[in-house]
Amino acid sequence: MSGPKTLYDKIWDAHVAHEDADGTCLLYIDRHLVHEVTSPQAFEGLRMTGRKVRAPEKTIAVPDHNVPTTPGRDKHIDNEESRIQVEALDKNARDFAINYYPVSDIRQGIVHIVGPEQGWTLPGMTVVCGDSHTATHGAFGALAHGIGTSEVEHVLATQTLIQKKSKNMKVEITGKLRPGVTAKDITLSVIGATGTAGGTGYVIEYCGEAIRDLSMEGRMTVCNMAIEGGARAGLIAPDEKTFDYVMGRPHAPKGAQWEAALNWWKTLFTDEGAHFDKVVTIRGEDIAPVVTWGTSPEDVLPITGTVPAAESFTGGKVGAAQRSLDYMGLTPGMKLTDIQIDTVFIGSCTNGRIEDLRAAAAILKGKKVKDGMRAMVVPGSGLVRAQAEEEGLAQIFIDAGFEWRLAGCSMCLAMNPDQLSPGERCAATSNRNFEGRQGRGGRTHLMSPAMAAAAAVTGHLTDVREMM
Amino acid sequence: MDKFTKLTGIAAPMPLVNIDTDMIIPKQFLKTIARTGLGKNLFDEMRYTQDGQEIPDFVLNQPAYRDTQILVAGDNFGCGSSREHAPWALLDFGIRCVISTSFADIFYNNCFKNGILPVVLPAEAVEVLMDDARKGANARMTVDLEAQTVTTSDGHSFGFEIDPFKKHCLLNGLDDIGLTLEKAASIDSFEKAAAQSRPWV
Ligand code: SF4
Known about the structure:
The complex is a heterodimer of chains A (468) and B (201). Chain A has helices spanning 7-13, 40-49, 80-95, 111-117, 149-158, 183-194, 209-212, 216-224, 240-246, 255-265, 317-328, 348-351, 354-364, 382-390, 393-400, 449-458, and strands spanning 16-19, 25-28, 31-34, 59-61, 99-100, 126-129, 143-146, 160-163, 167-174, 202-207, 233-235, 278-283, 290-292, 300-302, 343-346, 374-377, 403-404, 425-428, 443-446.
C-alpha cells in the first residue's frame, strides 16, 4: 500500500510475516505477555504436541489475577485452585525459560503495568496477551490487543498470530480538559458516545490536543478501555513524552540501539491525508467527571445527572437498561450524587499507576473515609507501591482509613479474596461494571481515582469539583 | 478440534443485548487448568440461585431447552474479557452455534478455535430466528456451514457471510498451529530481516 498511511497501517505493515491471497496474514509478535489464568491450557497444549516456545526472550510472565493482595502470599495462597494456577505458571515459566516476575519479586504487578514499567513495551511493537486489557500498551504507539488461550498457544509456538487487518477509526479529543476531568473521564465518555460495540472491527487512534496533553499514565488509562468500546486495539502516536518515559527502563534499548530505535519511532504517526473509516470527535471542554450507573461500560453519565428510565432507550437496550436498574437497585430520576456507597476500590490496570494514586491522595489529604465504609488502595505493581510509600502517599491513604494492599488485580475481578458481597455498592476505578464482576450481586460504579476518593470521604457518589 | 459442517438442533432464545463473558462464565470458574467441565457453570449466575438451586425461568433450565445446541442472542454477544473459557463453557454444554447481529471481536475469534460457529445476521433475520427459537424443542433449526445458511423449523432460510479461511478451518477441523508451522520459512526470514531493521526488539 502506498500513499498516506495511518499509524496503525505503519505498524501493521512492519509486522506482516506472510500474507495469503485472501488477506489473511501472519502478524509477527514482538512481545507476548502471559498471566496465570489464561495460559495453563496453552502450555499444556505445547507439552501435548511436543512444541517449544519459539521466542522465550520475547515472552514475559507474571501472576496477577488471582493472587491475594495481603502479606504472606509469597509463602502460601489459601485458595487451592488459585494456588494451583500460580504454581502452574511458576513451573511453566521455568520449564520454557521465559522471563518471569513471581509474587516474591518487587517488580511483580498487573501484567499491563509491569510491561511498560520494565520497558518491555516499546513504540511500534506488536504486543499481545491473553487478556483483553492488553489495549493499554497502545499508549506507546504499540499495536496491542488481547487474545484467547488458543491464540496464546499459537503465539508461544510460532511467535505469530493469524490476523486480518481491522479498519481505522479516529477518536479526536479537541481542546483542553476542564479542572477535575481526567483521562478516565475521557475514555468513559468516548464509550458513552460510541457504545460498547461502536469500535467493533476497528483499531482506534486517539488524537487531539487533550490526548497530547495527557501524561503516559493518562494515555494508558485511555487506551486500556478501548476494548470496552469494542475496538481491537487503541493507539496513541508516540512523542517526546513517550520517549522520556521509555528511556532508561530496564529493557529499553541503550546507546546506538536507542538512537536507531528513536529514529524509527519518530516516523510513527498518521500521515497527513490518511484515510480513516470512522471518525469521532469530542470537545475536551464538553467532558465532565462521569460515573457509570448501569452494568455496561456504555452506561455513562456526568456526575451531575440523574438515573435514567429504561424507556428512554430504544431497541434491545430497553430490556437491558431495566435489567441494569433492577440489578443496581436504582430508581429512575434519582440524582447520581444521592447514590450511597459501601466500598471504594482504587487500583487495576486502568488506574493503578502512580499518577492515579497521587490524584486520589490529593483529594484525601487530611480527610477521613466516611464511617462504616470499606476502602482499599491496590497499587498496580510492587514498584508503584514502593514509590507511593516514598512519596508519602501511602501514609495519606492509611491516615484516611484506606487499606494499603500489595500489587495485583484485586477487586477488579472477583477471582481472589477481594470481593463484593451481594448488594454491596462500590465506587471503583477499574474498567468493568458487569453483573457480578466484582463479586456475585456486587454493584459497581466506574469512575476516576479522584472521584472515587471523593466518594470515600462523603459516602455517596460525589462531584469531585466540589472538593477541589 | 471437532469439525463443523451441518447442524440441526434445538435453538434457545436469549434476546438480551450485550451478554458479556462474565455472564457466560463468571470468573470464579476460570481457576481451572483444563478446557473441559465448564458446561455446568455456563451462565452460572443467571442459571442458579446463590445456594445452587436452578432458577426455573432461565431458558436453559426449561425442559424444552436442556439440549440446546444453538443460541439466538441479542446484539454484541460475548463482549468483555478475552477468556476462552466462554466458548469452552458453551461447547461443554453442547452449544455449537451462536447467532446474533454482532459479536465482540475476541470472543468471535475464540469460537473458531473451538469448533463453534458464530453466525452474524441482520436484525430482521435474527428476529425471525428468535421467534422460531421460542417455539421450543419441537422446532429444530438447521445451520449449514457449507451452504452458509440458517433455516428455521418452517423452512425460512437466511444466508450469512463468513471469512473463507475461517470456514475452511471449521469445515475441516484444522489446527491453526499446524497450518502456521507450514509457513515457518516465512517466519524465519521475517525474524532475520527484523533483526537487522529493528535490532532493539
Ligand atoms: S486489573 Fe482487572 S482488567 Fe486489568 S488485567 Fe487485572 S483483572 Fe484484568
